[in-house]
Amino acid sequence: MIDPFGRACWLVMVGGAATAAMMFSCASPASADWLGRERQLTTGTATQDWPQLSGSKLAYADHVGERTVGQSTGAEILFDVRVLDLKTGTDLNLTPDHTALGRPAISGDRVVWSDYGNGTNRGFWYRNLATGQQRRLNASPGAQPQLSGDLLCYEFEGRIHVHNVNTGRDLVVSPAGASASACDISGRVVVWQDLRNGTDADIYAYDLGARSETRLTTTGTDQTLPRIDAGLVVWQDAITATNSDIYAYDLATAAVTQVTDDESVQWFAEVADGRIVWMDERDGHDNTEIFLYDVASSVTTRVTRHDGWSSNPTVAGNRIVYEDSRGAGHRVYLRMVTPPKLSLGRVPGSRTSPEVSGRLVGADGSPVSAETVVVETSPDGRVWAARAAAVTDQSGGFTLDVDVRSGDVQVRARFAGTPEYPAAVSPAITVERAHLVAGLLRPQP
Predict the structure, then answer these.
(1) Which residues contact 347 (CB under 8 A, 6 or more apart)?
(2) Are the C-beta atoms of residues 227 and 271 closer than 8 Å to each other?
(3) What are the tens digits of pLDDT across the range 403-423?
(4) Domain ends where: 336, 361, 377?
(5) Were 26 and a residue from 7, 355, 364, 384 both cysteine, which residue would form a disulfide, CB within 3.0 to 4.6 Å?
(6) DSSP state of 150
(7) Which CATH number fits the domain that encloses residue 388?
(8) 356 is in which domain, residue-wise?
């Protein structure tokens, strides 16, 4: 279906299975202003793959010291796990003896990976980047680790475990016989895929605080590889062997959004900070590309455009990292979402009037005109409420009154984003206490 602006639209289900309603969602393509230039993060002749972002820290696998242990069908390939600090450029090897077995997981200063050890102490190993502490975890020797703070989820013998890396407590959250796998965790919620309902996989969520499980999918197709961030769950739905799409589920509202609607394979989705990235085969199976969907603005952006295999994307904030097979081996690359710059300040000479002004300019400094900017206030800098809106002038500027009746408040400006420009928010400023006297706002003594 096509909307009046020529954009592709698709149906979206809102609510649970019993109270489903249908609505439309349209994703607009983004302009080139959404993303900065590509930057290569790793070099050398060996393959670097499986990138995982947490803030400005990037964990990845490096095969420069790759070696094989065991023989024939029991042989295992060992490599290194490294962490690159994108702010400082420091690139730390956590496994100098080339003992890593699987994809690393990272959350803040914590990193976990599957390690061969010396052959007898294999299992999950943990590194605290802040303290330098590195040790083997007293957890089952499972696979597919994912981290959220102190909590590690993983699969062992068809069940999902959650392990606290500080206390050592290990909790099984999926039932026996369900063939559960591919878990992820965010805060106190774990998600995974399992086969308890027959031959097709479904997505489940478990709330560690409430100790309750929720089934998120009920259709007769395979829903697999879920990822979660701050209550937003994404997965791939295999409609046919050659057609799978990315879906998103909001745990707070039970709204399900179909993110992609292309007659090819979209898979390996990741989500963080309101942005979803995935591998996309619309240009062919041997020419996968990375795409980005911004939830707040409903804008879809193509991240890569190279011959060959662009894969395993990860996202955090404005950073998108992925591996690419151009040339010999795989390298890890970075592209940045480049939001415009939004400023805000008190109007000089306005005395007691709570008037603020600001300017919206692109990443290159050019004015962004004829766009709506909303001024928000907060008593504590945590919960924000929209107070007034203005349209930017030819210089990108705007001026607004802020209704501050009592108490110091923080004020900021927000731009919701468009297909031309990503969303932006200004630094907050403080407007002093005031009260209404004879119809005018004056500072209290």
Answers:
(1) 353, 355, 356, 357, 399
(2) yes
(3) 665 566 899 999 999 999 999
(4) 336
(5) 7
(6) T
(7) 2.60.40.10
(8) 341-443
